[in-house]
Amino acid sequence: MNRRVLQVLPVGAVLLVTAAAPSRATGPLHGSGCAPSACELEPPTPEEVHAIVAEADRLVARYAMDTTSIGRQCLALGTTMRARIDEVRMLPVMWRAPDTEGSLAAVTGDAHRVEPVPGAGRVHIARGFDSLNPERGIPAIVETARHEFAHLNGMGRREMWGLDDGARLAAACAPPEEREAGR
Ligand SMILES: [Zn+2]
Predict the structure, then answer these.
(1) Is residue 89 part of a domain?
(2) Ligand 1 mean position to 125 CA, how many Å?
(3) How far apart, in whole angstroms, are the C-alpha atoms of residue 110 and residue 123?
(4) How remote is the CA of residue 50 from the centroid of ligand 1, in Å?
(5) Fewer beta carbons under 10 A from the terminal one: N or C of the chain?
(6) Contact 24, 33 (CB under 8 A)
(7) Rounded distance from Cα 148 to ligand 1 centre (Å)
(8) 124-131: average pLDDT
(9) Residue 91 lies in a domain
(10) Residue 32 lies in a domain
(11) In a 10 Å sphere around its CB, with 0-12 CB exposed, 13-18 middle and 19+ buried, how is residue 133 labelled?
(12) Rounded to the nearest whole angstrom, what is the distance from the C-alpha of residue 170 to the centroid of ligand 1?
């Protein structure tokens, strides 16, 4: 795996592309580009890869025989996470991006139909909240991975009670102990 820090396009260029392509044919599936202060993408650490793959394996094992609608979606989510772990890149901290109403909102991750630039990956996950709190922790990173891979699998950005379809599927497929904790 390439350990080199990847530099993404200057944010101005990313925003320009987003503004010029309202159809989002090549735009992000969730979030938009990366923020000026957070445009350094890094490969996930071995620990992060292990945690995401372990979650993918849990989903595949848990939902392999589940023929309900949600079961099939969780199985597909695990399958995609396993197959596309190479598309994950990490960012040091959360960034801000326009939400569906055009307001700037804090973002823990995003997902793209195509790589914003070659080698940049299609799923981007923040490791930390900000420079003073640089560790969100592995469970939060795994939660974000479920959420953003759900967008890769076609879940939309339509929001209800502040959660979009990707977030809701991520929560529905979460381990029971996390669902009970209201994560
Ligand atoms: Zn989302």
Answers:
(1) yes
(2) 12
(3) 6
(4) 23
(5) N
(6) no
(7) 6
(8) 93
(9) yes
(10) yes
(11) exposed
(12) 9
Q: Give pLDDT tens digits for 90-119.
A: 998 998 888 778 888 888 999 999 888 888
Of 129, 123, 125, nearest to 84 by C-alpha is 123
- Rounded to an integer, the average pLDDT of 61-73 is 98
- Using the mean position of ligand 1's atoms as its centre, give its distance from the Cα of residue 134 in Å: 22
Q: Residue 97: what pLDDT?
A: 82
The three-state secondary structure class of 145 is helix
Q: Could you tell me the distance, in angstroms and rounded to a whole number, from the CA of residue 172 to the centre of ligand 1?
A: 14
Tokens linked to 140: 């939060």
Residue 1 lies in a domain: no
Total domain count, the chain: 1
Q: Please compute the mean of the pLDDT values over residues 157-166 and round it to a whole number.
A: 85
Q: How many CA atoms, within 13 angstroms, populate the side-chain half-sphere of residue 95? A: 23
Range of the domain at 102: 6-180
Cα(30) to ligand 1 centroid in Å equals 5
